[in-house]
Design a protein that fits this description.
- The chain is built from 10 helices and 12 strands.
- It is of the alpha+beta class.
- It has 3 domains: about 100 residues, 2-Layer Sandwich (Beta-Lactamase), CATH 3.30.450; about 80 residues, Helix Hairpins (Orthogonal Bundle), CATH 1.10.287; about 160 residues, Heat Shock Protein 90 (2-Layer Sandwich).
- Helix 5 packs antiparallel against helix 6 and helix 7 packs across helix 8.
- It starts with a strand and ends with a strand.
């Protein structure tokens, strides 16, 4: 973006328009103050540069777009020299750092998984042995008593012990990290089989599943069983978010956003993008921040490990998961997987 000496906008390039989601025609000759109403810190950077003549940098600024979104950017402000030492204006440059922020987030999540696996392996023995004793004692008491009220309480103990045991086993699975058994997988066949299963599920009886598959997508190298686990979990999360009613869209396409370098001797591989969009209640920002935190859950009977398992499966395939908002309301979950 270029400002004149009166701090009016006189030029932005197409890349800036796309990043900031504003057309040049709509802001031409606009005072920068009016443009920066959603981003007052930008105006202070411009003022400092104009006053001191020194360039200023902002390493990680969250730029608020006109549609209410946020884009992480690296900002530089610099004066434009005019004739005979005068100032002709100011250049304001934005560099999109979304990709680097995602790498940072994925690295933190991977570290959490590693710590969770170590914790599970350490604690499993100390937890599972007492659980076995509690369950066995409750079963013996249940067999001996004739008091129906006591039987109800004992069955509740057994049920809760089994739930804790499942959580421990799930955490241990993260540590065990079963090796991939890759083979050429038809992702559309896998997704259709999951949808066929879900359509027979009573909880999904009111859901209209809409598919938008790209027929040009080839078979991908993957562990079909683990991909089934991943997408079945995501789809069921969407079904629960919509309380079993509404429309859910599942789409596939070749992503133009990312590539992955798996071998230094080979060119980067393009990525397959699978997106699951529901029209549920959406995810509040404070909840979204913790969704990949182990044992965090908003469900009454949830373990808080479902998305962690999905994330691990994606990472083992050299892919990743990203949660966002569905423009039509609800939640969008995107999964990137290498095509080769």
């Amino acid at each position: 973006m270029v400002l004149n000496e009166e701090k009016r906008i006189i030029y932005v390039n197409p890349a800036w328009e796309q990043l900031c989601r504003v057309s040049f025609a709509s802001i031409r000759e606009l005072p920068f103050h009016d443009f920066a109403l959603r981003n007052p810190h930008l105006e202070s950077l411009v003022e400092k540069t104009m006053e001191t003549g020194a360039s200023h940098h902002e390493m990680d600024y969250s730029y608020r777009t006109p549609d209410g979104g946020d884009v992480p950017v690296f900002i530089t402000t610099s004066l434009i020299a005019g004739i005979a030492g005068t100032t002709a204006g100011l250049a304001l440059t934005f560099q999109d750092i979304s990709y680097f922020k995602e790498i940072e987030t994925n690295t933190k999540q991977a570290h959490r998984l590693h710590l969770l696996g170590k914790l599970a392996a350490t604690m499993a023995h100390e937890i599972k042995n007492p659980l076995g004793g509690i369950r066995g004692s409750a079963q013996l008491l249940d067999m001996e008593t004739r008091d129906q009220d006591q039987k109800v309480l004992l069955q509740a103990i057994i049920k809760e012990v089994d739930r804790i045991n499942r959580i421990v086993e799930t955490a241990l699975d993260l540590k065990r990290s079963r090796e991939l058994r890759t083979s050429p997988v038809n992702i559309h066949k896998t997704l259709n089989e999951i949808l066929l299963l879900e359509k027979r599920n009573e909880k999904s009886s009111g859901i209209n599943f809409k598919v938008e598959f790209d027929p040009s997508i080839p078979h991908i190298p993957a562990d079909e069983a683990q991909l089934t686990q991943l997408f079945l979990n995501l789809i069921r999360n969407g079904v629960e978010a919509m309380d079993g009613e509404g429309e859910m869209a599942i789409s596939t396409r070749v992503s133009s956003e990312y590539q992955v370098q798996q071998d230094a001797q080979k060119p980067p591989s393009r990525m397959l993008l699978v997106e699951v969009r529901d029209k549920g209640k959406g995810i509040p920002p404070e909840v979204r921040e913790n969704l990949f935190t182990p044992f965090f859950t908003t469900k009454k009977a949830g373990s808080g490990l479902g998305l962690i398992v999905c994330q691990q499966v994606a990472e083992k395939h050299k892919g990743w998961i990203k949660l966002g908002q569905n423009p039509e309301g609800g939640t969008s979950v995107k999964v990137w997987l290498p095509l080769k």
